[in-house]
Amino acid sequence: MTSVKEFRTEEPATADAPGSGRFVFTDAYSVFDWGQMPDSIPEKGRSLCAMGAYNFELLEAEGVPTHYRGVVDPTVDEAGGEPEAVELDAVAEPPREMAIDLVQVPDLPAEDGSYDYETFHAAAGENYLIPLEIVFRNSVPVGSSLRSRRDPGAVGLDAAEWPDDPVNLPEPVVEFSTKFEEQDRYLTREEADRIAGRATLDDLAAVAREVNRVVTDRAESVGMAHEDGKIECCYVDGEIRVADVVGTFDENRFSYDAQEISKEVLRQYHKRTQPEWVAAVDAAKTAADEQGETDWRALCEREPEPLGAGVIDAASDLYTAGTNAYLDRELFDAPTLDDAVAAVRSLGD
User: Fold this and answer.
1) Ramachandran quadrant class, 247 (left: phi over 0; alpha: psi -120 to 50; beta: rest)
2) Which of 3, 220, 325, 349 lies at 20 to 30 Å from 152 by C-alpha?
3) Could you give the residue ranges of the DSSP H alpha helices within the chain?
């Protein structure tokens, strides 16, 4: 299980061919790489499944290869029948399970804070999950790590210093970060090229830009702004396919009427209400780097506190109302997006 998804294998992948399986989207959430937090967000899993499926179907229509094979109709699954993968439009209720092709995911050995990608790729062959996250950015908020890693001119801005306010980029910026390491880290092009294995960075960047275009266009059509996001990809017999899940409120950041409507709401809420825990997380990650440790959580001196019921309700409504708006379909029994956004804004009062 990942921090928010269960993983079920129906037919294992082999060195010669992909297998088949399912993602089961839970209502768990994770912030700051912590893993599962103390609370769950009702209907979050179904909203991510529906939004991810919708985006996969948009990508397939645009000719972008993916590992997506449909969603599982919850009414068939609950009735005890033999569930089959169907298109999102074929289900009347929000799905929780997504059918996918599986590829090989070899172990990534680690010792003394160093990861052995040569061993990973020796076992990966021609059919594997690429151990990178490909990040794309359309804007740069205040506090973004990009500001400390790149000069404004390097990303197309006509400025000697970063503005004090959020800024839109003239062209999307694509970066690469680690996928399977205990702590995500951004990579130089040389590092990313070595970690990617047989996949080329130019091809991965081209796929990321196409995903970004499709999601951005859809968001704009329903009044949302798509700020940034990430994808994962698999490599199958020379072809790059989009994997994991795409364009959801967990993987990407969206805003509506100048209000964040993604998991960023929960990140910022924790920064405001549990600053000691956030600081402890940062300190543990720094200590792990300095000590050559991979398990930074073992060094963290604090645990996150549960959320209040009002915060959980507001977050749930934001996920479901946002998904309804993005799909332009009343799939969930949820308030309007305007009302959900107003409730989230009140959390800062």
Assistant:
1) left
2) 220
3) 44-61, 74-78, 117-124, 146-149, 189-196, 201-221, 264-273, 275-291, 309-327, 337-346
Task: Say how far apart CA 61 and CA 39 lie, in whole Å.
Answer: 37
Q: Residue 265 corresponds to which tokens in the numbers above? A: 């709401």
* pLDDT-based confidence at residue 27 (cuts at 50, 70, 90): very high
pLDDT of 336 over the 70 cut: yes
Q: How many other CB atoms are found less than 10 A from the CB of residue 16? A: 9
Rounded to whole angstroms, how far apart are CA atoms 3 and 141?
A: 26
pLDDT digits (tens, 9 = 90+) for 235-261: 999 999 999 999 999 999 999 999 999
Whole-Å CA distances, 177 to 117, 122, 192, 284 = 14, 21, 7, 20
Domain count, the chain: 1
In this structure, the number of other CB atoms found within 10 A of the CB of residue 67 comes to 24
Q: Please say whether the beta carbons of 313 and 299 come within 8 A.
A: no
pTM of the model: 0.93
Query: What type of residue sits at position 158?
Result: D
Residue 330: count other Cβ atoms within 10 Å of its Cβ: 8
How many Å apart are CA 87 and CA 72, to the nearest integer?
Answer: 9
| CA atoms of 249 and 199, how far apart (whole Å) | 27
Q: Which of 126, 132, 131, 128 is nearest to 103 (CA)?
A: 128
**pLDDT, tens digit, 9 for 90 and up, residues 203-238:** 999 999 999 999 999 999 999 999 999 999 999 999
CB hemisphere CA count around 103 (13 angstroms): 24
Q: Domain residues for 270? A: 5-346
Assign residue 21 the CATH number of its domain. 3.30.470.20
For residue 1, the model assigns a pLDDT of 44
